[in-house]
């Protein structure tokens, strides 16, 4: 067929293309969800139990999408001792749009100026929470294409998730995740195994260009998310079973074949329901499920249910949440560390979940596992794909280095500053009133930021933004070091739109 790959074509592709390094940035301030329940006057447990959230990170007016991505990219490069001329492609995934023309990627190119490297492909990708995954696929596809020149690709997903006062506000959050992409990766993409579903819906969208706040149809959004999960899982399962058949492997694919399963996490309880949803899919697709014992025991009454009629069926949800309890603890619970403690990061959300899995396991516990990844973005776009963890968990290996680089995630979470709900509300009000103002100097305290964080210093009368960086810790980027901060004064380097 025209466009088909020759039989020998696969042998020429780079081996084990995937994620080599991964860096997470979270804000230095958070609000406690229990205190927020009391402040909002809602029932105790509405946010903590009903949504599964404990803390929510947030940004003052000192941070925007450019500063978040500057911080994540520079931190990844420094912690991995990488020169900027080793990067041949830079992709950004975000839905936090502050300019309708100028991309975040072009702002990040200022980090490359000292290296002299301007030969860097890629640009921003936007579709709600799916933009980070689309950017990641673009980077992987570039490395596996005839355009690849042997250098790394770099992907950064970042967002600031804020909502108007009301029931959606506790599902906010903020952060960025940067990923280094190349061959011989410790987290390699399973080639040819992607199940995608795209459809039109107005479940969550941002039509007001002068506001940070989205328009949300909560019930429809849950239905879209779960229906996309059903479809993506079905397509993925068909593709992997076809691969197995070609390889002479005679077995059915099920959730048990994933060592870990991570999801885009708007809030933790939806992830738990989603894991239960995959167990429902396995149950309905199994020609002979054992309902006498094991995880399907007692579920015979649900044998004839139609998935599309069960999105809000409490009996189905309760039964399969119970049936999936052990599987959830084994495969997914660890992935919710960042989501529970920092909230929804939008495009980096699912990659924050991936980072959480890596951060709380040893290289030996991760080695050889297949990790399922479900990414969803409203509007809507979704993909379920998988990563294979390398078998090499020896000291100094790529996997060992990746785990070591995320080993301080718990320390970083615990080192944040808790603020009262009224301070949080005041920050949200300030962002609301000053969003997109020209000739504006941010009011937030630089001292509230982590060392090494880029921040906004000024927006001039032509909307051009200027940034500076807080001095990093001495030894901040040495793996495992518990370094001490320098003074809170900014670095000597200040970034503007196009100039050092």
TrEMBL record:
Q: Which superkingdom is the protein from?
A: Eukaryota
Q: Name one GO biological process term.
A: farnesyl diphosphate biosynthetic process, mevalonate pathway
- Identify the catalytic residues: 95, 129, 264
Q: Where is the Hydroxymethylglutaryl-coenzyme A synthase N-terminal domain?
A: 13-186
E.C. code: 2.3.3.10
Which family does this protein fall into?
Answer: Belongs to the thiolase-like superfamily. HMG-CoA synthase family.
User: What's in the keyword line of the UniProt record?
Assistant: Cholesterol biosynthesis, Cholesterol metabolism, Lipid biosynthesis, Lipid metabolism, Steroid biosynthesis, Steroid metabolism, Sterol biosynthesis, Sterol metabolism, Transferase
| Record PANTHER family | 3-HYDROXY-3-METHYLGLUTARYL COENZYME A SYNTHASE, HYDROXYMETHYLGLUTARYL-COA SYNTHASE
- Please give the catalytic activity noted in the UniProt record: acetoacetyl-CoA + acetyl-CoA + H2O = (3S)-3-hydroxy-3-methylglutaryl-CoA + CoA + H(+)
Protein name listed in UniProt: Hydroxymethylglutaryl-CoA synthase
């Amino acid at each position: 067929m025209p466009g088909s790959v020759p039989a020998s074509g696969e042998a020429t592709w780079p081996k084990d293309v995937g994620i080599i390094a991964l860096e997470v940035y979270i804000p230095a301030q958070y609000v406690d969800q229990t205190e927020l329940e009391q402040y909002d006057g809602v029932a105790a447990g509405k946010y903590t139990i009903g949504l599964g959230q404990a803390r929510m990170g947030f940004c003052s007016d000192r941070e925007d999408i450019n500063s978040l991505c500057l911080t994540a990219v520079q931190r990844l490069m420094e912690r991995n001792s990488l020169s900027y001329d080793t990067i041949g492609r830079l992709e950004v995934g975000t839905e936090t749009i502050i300019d309708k023309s100028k991309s975040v990627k072009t702002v990040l190119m200022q980090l490359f100026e000292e290296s002299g490297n301007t030969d860097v492909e890629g640009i921003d990708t936007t579709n709600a929470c799916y933009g980070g995954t689309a950017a990641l696929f673009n980077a992987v596809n570039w490395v596996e294409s005839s355009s690849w020149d042997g250098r790394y690709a770099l992907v950064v997903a970042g967002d600031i998730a804020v909502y108007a006062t009301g029931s959606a506000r506790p599902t906010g959050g903020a952060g960025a995740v940067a990923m280094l992409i190349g061959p011989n990766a410790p987290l390699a993409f399973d080639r040819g195994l992607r199940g995608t579903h795209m459809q039109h819906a107005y479940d969550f969208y941002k039509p007001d260009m002068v506001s940070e706040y989205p328009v949300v149809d909560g019930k429809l959004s849950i239905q879209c998310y779960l229906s996309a999960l059903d479809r993506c899982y079905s397509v993925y399962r068909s593709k992997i079973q076809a691969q197995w058949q070609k390889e002479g492997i005679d077995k059915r694919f099920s959730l048990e074949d994933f060592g870990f399963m991570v999801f885009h996490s708007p809030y933790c309880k939806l992830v738990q329901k989603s894991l239960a949803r995959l167990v429902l899919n396995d149950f309905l697709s199994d020609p002979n499920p054992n309902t006498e014992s094991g995880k399907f025991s007692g579920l015979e009454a649900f044998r004839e249910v139609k998935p599309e009629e069960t999105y809000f069926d409490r009996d189905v949800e309760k039964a399969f949440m119970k049936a999936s309890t052990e599987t959830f603890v084994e495969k997914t619970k660890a992935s919710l560390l960042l989501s529970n403690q920092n909230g929804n990061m939008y495009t980096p959300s699912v990659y924050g979940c991936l980072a959480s899995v890596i951060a709380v396991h040893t290289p030996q516990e991760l080695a050889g596992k297949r990790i399922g990844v479900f990414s969803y973005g409203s509007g809507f776009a979704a993909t379920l794909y998988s990563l294979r963890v390398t078998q090499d968990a020896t000291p100094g290996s790529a996997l060992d280095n990746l785990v070591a680089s995320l080993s301080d995630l718990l320390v970083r979470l615990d080192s944040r500053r808790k603020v009262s709900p009224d301070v949080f509300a005041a920050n949200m009000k300030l962002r609301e009133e000053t969003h997109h103002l020209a000739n504006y100097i941010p009011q937030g305290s630089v001292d509230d930021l982590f060392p090494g964080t880029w921040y906004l210093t000024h927006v001039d009368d032509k909307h051009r933004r200027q940034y500076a960086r807080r001095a990093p810790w001495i030894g901040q980027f040495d793996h495992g070091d518990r370094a001490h901060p320098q003074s809170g004064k900014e670095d000597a380097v200040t970034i503007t739109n196009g100039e050092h």
